[in-house]
Structures are given as structure tokens and as C-alpha cells.
Amino acid sequence: MSVMTSLRRRAGWLVLAAALAMTAGPAGLGAKPLNPNAPKKPPPSTEKPKGGPAAPRLARRVVVVSLDGAGAAELQQLWRDDLLDEGGFARFFREGEVASALVPVDPTLAAPNHVSLATGAAPDRTGIVGNHFHPAGAPDFAKASGFDFPIGAETLWEAARRQRKRVAAVAWPGIDGSEPRLRADVGFSSAAGAERDPQLLVLKRSDWQAAAAGAAGAPRLASPSRSPVLGAHVALGGASGVAAAEFDLYAVGRTGDGQENYDSVVVAASIPAGAAGGGKAGGARAARAPSVANLEQSEPLGQGQWAEVIFPDRGGRSACWVKVLALDPGLEEVRLYFTGTYRLQAYPADYAKDLAESNLFWPGPPDDRRLAAAWHGQPGIDLDTWTEQAARFAAFFGGAMRRIATGRDDWDLMLGCIPVIDQAGHSLLLADSHQSGYSAARRDELARARRKVWQAVDHELRLLMAALDLGRTTVVVVSDHGMAPVHTIVDLNALLRERGWLASPAATAARAMPAARAARATPALRAARAAAGGGGGAGDGIAAYVIGDGGTAHLYLAKAAAAPDAAARQRQLLELRDQLLAWRSGDDTPIERVLTRQEAADLGLDHPNSGDLILFANEGYAFDPGPEPSGAATVHPASAYGMHGYLAAHPAMQGVYLAIGKDVKPGSASAAVQATDVAGRVARWLGMGKPAAAAAAGIGGR
Ligand SMILES: [Zn+2]
């Protein structure tokens, strides 16, 4: 669906304010203005009381922060360019240890690397061989997520809890809370998709109505509007049974030039009657009170300004952020952007409450889709808005970690992840003239935005370290992989189809049929069977499918169509391998390596979950996810700008490793650290045994 179409559809959600009684003038009752830039609830003092009995010896603590997608070369460049915060990244260079790189495990993807960081084991032991893969023993085409698949080795969080240490986990990939093994003592996992999607709203002059005098309900303004206050009403639709969130908008003009003109918008959550006071959900829709009493509302927002709007929601509170993208004095076209709302499942209850009271609501990731829309000339958000969202997302994770660092005693190990550098890499790494829309000016503009995202993370590190006692705490900052520019997607399933080697569910069913039944097969099944095996020649009989992930892909031979014996199967694989390696797209070589599972042992990928063949792309190319062809074209332009999943030996895939605090020698530069070394170091700093080699079935569920 095009953005234009969806916008037209959304226009139906604009409810004119005629249905509401609203006042002009400063008559708001008890409305609490919310300054979006106001400091959050100050952290409790960490100062220790003076005098009295000696303080008990405090146990050591370790904080592991993963900066998804942060590359070693980029960090070193920022350091050389003197762009790093003295109290943030730069502090590690001065007072801690900075390794030349962190060498990820293959494939250089988030799930395998976060699991290997946390276990000290390579994917051939953990079984997490991709963000997505076909799990051994499952039916053909089944696809598992590496973020919630059972891990084949003990994790740091399990080892810690086994040794009576307490664990905090802030959105650490792999700790999804779904079962005791995948849960910490305090924290949360990444919120799922938006409960209410982000919206871009365009209001015309006719959408605004004069606010009626006499009723309570207009915003209380520090300086009154000099033009008559106008109102409008909008709703943010909810998904799967979640009620829409409704907002009252007020157009305000603060200049006294005698003209009727407007320079700002006040956004107030609009609460159904009966819900505002006790925070209870429900209440007849028709009885919605036209009152902003008891509601939090924004200060007047001029063009380019954001506000966080918090509203009662199903017994708790939710929040979204609103930005005035465009506003003209005559209100001919006011464009407002509302972020989505999300459900965060933080635990235990007192931590969830603390986050909410600190106004730390999951703000959602930066809106890639609307940034791309704007780049294609459609309604969307600009680069500044995207960057501000990324910085806010970083601040959310930083804030959530600091609430644990300063507000709680019930943790020894904290595992936290900040994903925005990865997001900035995927969306903004325009650095290769083969990429669509490339120009030197755009390259530099996007590089500046990515630098702002790095600096937002830098700022959060500064605040986190300032909140920690580095005399008893070790902080280690790592990443899972770096990032490289991408310009072309290769759909390997479409390539298999071209060669007649693509397995499809219908075709594998036909092949699996006993001969007697096959004789009676319908024409459709016979056709499917012919399609599956129809290549002829050396590759005859091959039926395979691919699960791709950035620069890595796993190719699986369909089991239902398996060759009669191991030798024949091996011949098929080697034939496929050679054909794929020989494949060219024009003059280019998109595929760097193709390995059988056994050959991938050197990369730590010889595991039954791995493909029968494992492929790595050359930088510039990435593989379609599969396991079905996505469309007709085997090769098509990439929609992302940055990608990873290439061989870990590539310099661009190297991650970061920085450590500071207790037991870290100050001012030390060191050689590259392996991702699989990190868990052992963390265990040593914590004074506990490292994670066991095998999965710890049944532990961690205390
Ligand atoms: Zn990524």
C-alpha cells in the first residue's frame, strides 16, 4: 500500500472538533503542563552516609553494554577526530582498556553474536547459527528465530544465577522473558511491535473549529493566545483490540500583531469519561468528557518541536511523542507526526512502576519507513526527525539502565543493549557510489546524522558511568558486528528457481509420494514435481531452499526430496556449491564463499541447524530472507543502505570492545578480543565460574 493511499484512509480519523464543547481562553482546570525538556525524576543520591558503623563490603558488579552494529573502525575514527565525550567513550581510551577490535563470530548477525558473547561458545555449540534458520529435524521450510531458540550452552545470566548472583537484563537479545531460562531478576525484553502505529497527520484549515466558550477544556497557557483558540480532534488507531488513543489539538497564536495567525499547537490526551479520574478503562464512548482536566498536555509546540504526551491506558499509563513537522500561520496545512505506543513488559512490578514514574516509556525505534517515504518524494519524516527518534531511543535504554544502576541493589550483573547504531547503519550508511541516491552531499549529510546517533549513545554512556561506582563495578562495552554499505539484494531462491533447483512445499510433497501414488498424481502435482526436478544435467534432482540474512545465507536441501544415498547427496551439494560460486551478476561476483556444513567447521558453524551449504556475500550485496522467492527478479536494488552478516574476517564487520572500572588496567590499548572471550572475562570480574559448556537445563528458574 502506498503512503498516499494510507494517508487518504487515515484522513477518516480526523474527527472535527464541532462535536466537542471547548472554551476559548485560559480556563483549563488542573491541567498539568508538561515540558518535554524537563529533567526526568532525579536519581536518588548514591552518596554513602558518613560516620556510623563501617559500611559492609560491597560485592563487585559488572555492567555489559552491547552497542548493536557499532564498528571498530568508526569508533577509532571518532576518537581520532576528537568527537567523543570526555565522560563517555573517551573515558575508556584514557582510563580503561580499548581493544583494536572485537572479532565477532560468524555469521556477523545480532542473535548469534549476542548468544556467543553471553555463553563464550561459538554457534556450533549454541546452535544459534543466524537471526533466522531452519532448525534441525523440523519440517522443510520451517524457520526459527535465533532470538528465542533454545541455546545449546549455558549463558552468563544462567551461570550467574546458579552462583547466587542476581542479573538485570535491559533488552539484551536472547533474554526474551518467555521462559525461566530466558529471564533475569529485573529488566525487560524488547517491546514487540506498536500497539498503535505511528501516524503522519495533515490538517487543513477546515479541520480546525473555533473552540466554544463556556465549557472547561481549553489549555491553560502561560501566555494567552492572541488569536482565537481553535480545536481539532484526532485518534491514533489501535491494533488487535487496543482502543484508539484520542487527542485534542489546540492551535494557538502568541503574536499580537492584530492579525489572526497561529504559531503553535497544544496537544492534550483526550480521555473517555470515567477513565480520567480513576484511570479505569472503558466508559461509554458517547459520554467522552470534553474536558482536559486531569490530563497532561504539552506546552505550545512550534514547528520542529516535540512533546511527550502521557495518558491513562488500561489501568496504567502509555505515552507517545508528537512533533509539529510543519505549521503555517493560516493553518492551511499543519503536519503532525505521532510516534506509536508500545507495551513494555518490565519486571518485577516495582521496576515497571519506577520506569513509568520516571516517564521512561518505550518510545519505539526511529521510523525507517517514513524516512524512506520522504526520500521518495512521498509524505514522511525528515532526517532530523529520524535522528531525534534514534537519540530518544538511546536515551530510553540509557535511562532504564540508570534506574537499575542507581535505584536498585538487587543486581550483580547487568546486561544491556542499545540498538540505535545498528539502526543508523542500516538506514544511513550511504558511502558507495553504487548505492541508489548516492551523491557526495547526501553521503556527508547522512554521515553527520550517523555521527549524531553515535554521540547520543556516547552521552548515555557518560550518564551511566557517572551513576556507577567504578571502584567496585567493571563496565564493558561491546558490539555484535560492524556495518558495510549495501546496494543490491540477491534473491537466492529466485536463482534456484531459474536453475530448476527450487524446492517448494507442493513440489516436495509430490516428490515424497510413493511411486504407486505418484502414478495417480494429479496434473498439478506432476507439474510441481517436474518443476522441482526439471533442471536436467549435472544438478538433476536438486531441490533446495534458502534462508538469507544480510550477508549470510543458509541453503537447505529439502528432506522430502532427498537424494537416495549420502554419496549422491554429497555430489548434489558440491555441484550446487560450484554453480553458486561460478554465478555472476553482470560482471560482478555477489557471492564470496560457499561452504558445506563440514567445511564451515573452521568458522564455528558445523551445527545441524546450519544449512547444507552456507553462503557469504561480498560487501555491497545482501541476501533476500526467503525461504520463498520474494518476486520475479533475482537481483534488485537494496532498500537499506547498511548491512552486516559478511565474513567476520572483514574489517568492516569488526565490533568494539572497551572496558573500564574495577580490575581494568587504565590507559591500555590491546589487541583484538574474540567475542567468545567476553563471557569468561565477565565471569572473572564477577568472581564466579564461567558459563558451563553445556546448556544448563532446568536452572535459572528460581
Ligand atoms: Zn542489524
What does this structure look like?
It contains 17 helices and 30 strands. The chain has 702 residues and is α/β, with parallel strands linked by helices. The chain folds into three domains: 59-120 and 152-191 and 346-482 and 644-697, Alkaline Phosphatase, subunit A; 192-282 and 289-343; 487-642, no CATH class. An eight-stranded mixed β-sheet has the order 8-7-18-2-19-28-3-29, with helices on both faces. Strands 9-17-16-15 form a four-stranded antiparallel β-sheet, with no helix packed on it. A four-stranded antiparallel β-sheet has the order 10-11-12-13, with no helix packed on it. The chain is globular, with a radius of gyration of 28 Å. The chain starts with a helix and ends in a 16-residue tail after the last helix. The model is unreliable at 1-49, 273-294, 512-538 and 698-702 (pLDDT under 50). The structure holds zinc ion. Zinc ion (ZN) binds at residues 69, 110, 422, 426, 644.
Write a concise keyword list for the protein shown above.
single chain, 702 residues, alpha/beta, Alkaline Phosphatase, subunit A, 3 domains, 8-stranded mixed beta sheet, 4-stranded antiparallel beta sheet, 17 helices, 30 strands, 26% helix, globular, disordered N terminus, disordered C terminus, binds zinc ion
Give me a quick take on this structure.
The two termini are 48 Å apart. This protein has 3 domains: 293 residues, Alkaline Phosphatase, subunit A; 146 residues; 156 residues, no CATH class.
